[in-house]
C-alpha cells in the first residue's frame, strides 16, 4: 500500500512564505510525475505546479515567480516553496503523485493541508 503524508501548511501573513512537503511511503517501483493542487472554498480544485520525473516543471500563471516545486527522489518527497503569499492563495493544498507499483501506474492523492494567508 502507498501512503502520502503532507506537512507544512498553516497560517501566514501576506508577503510571507511557507514550504509544503509530501512524502510517499510503501511498496513502490517508481514515482513518475508529482504535482500540487489547491482548492479554495467554493471553487474547483486547480493545478498549482507540476514536476516530471526528469525535473521539468510547470507553474500556473497565478503562482509564477512566487511558488517553486521541487522533488527529492531519494526521499520520495515533493516540495512546494511558497513565497510572496497573497490572501487569494488561501486553500487546501493537495499533493498528487503518479506512482508505479506492482499493479502498474496509479494516481495517488494526499489528504490535503490547509494554507491560510491573512491580509
Provide a descriptive summary of the structure in words.
With 119 residues, this protein is mainly beta. The protein contains no helices and eleven strands. Helix content is 0%, strand content 61%.
Keywords:
seven-stranded mixed β-sheet; mainly beta; 119 residues
Quick structural summary:
With 119 residues, the protein is mainly beta. 0% of the residues lie in helices and 61% in strands.
Order of helices and strands: EEEEEEEEEEE
Percent range for helical residues?
under 10%
Structural class: mainly beta
Report the portion of residues in β strands: over 45%
Strand segment tally: 11
- The rough form would be described as elongated
Mean pLDDT: 96
Helices and strands, with pairings:
Blueprint: E1 2-7, E2 10-13, E3 18-26, E4 30-39, E5 46-51, E6 57-59, E7 67-72, E8 77-82, E9 91-101, E10 104-109, E11 113-118
Parallel strand pairs: 2-11
Antiparallel strand pairs: 1-3, 3-8, 4-5, 4-9, 5-6, 7-8, 9-10, 9-11
Amino acid at each position: 500500500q502507498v501512503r502520502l503524508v503532507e506537512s507544512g501548511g498553516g497560517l501566514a501573513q501576506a508577503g510571507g512564505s511557507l514550504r509544503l512537503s509530501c512524502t510517499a511511503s510503501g511498496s513502490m517501483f517508481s514515482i513518475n510525475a508529482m504535482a500540487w493542487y489547491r482548492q479554495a472554498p467554493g471553487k474547483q480544485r486547480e493545478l498549482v505546479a507540476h514536476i516530471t520525473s526528469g525535473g521539468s516543471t510547470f507553474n500556473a500563471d497565478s503562482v509564477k515567480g512566487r511558488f517553486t516545486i521541487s522533488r527529492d527522489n531519494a526521499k520520495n518527497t515533493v516540495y512546494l516553496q511558497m513565497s510572496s503569499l497573497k490572501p487569494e492563495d488561501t486553500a487546501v493544498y493537495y499533493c498528487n503523485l503518479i506512482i508505479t507499483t506492482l499493479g502498474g501506474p496509479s494516481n495517488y492523492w494526499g489528504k490535503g493541508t490547509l494554507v491560510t494567508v491573512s491580509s
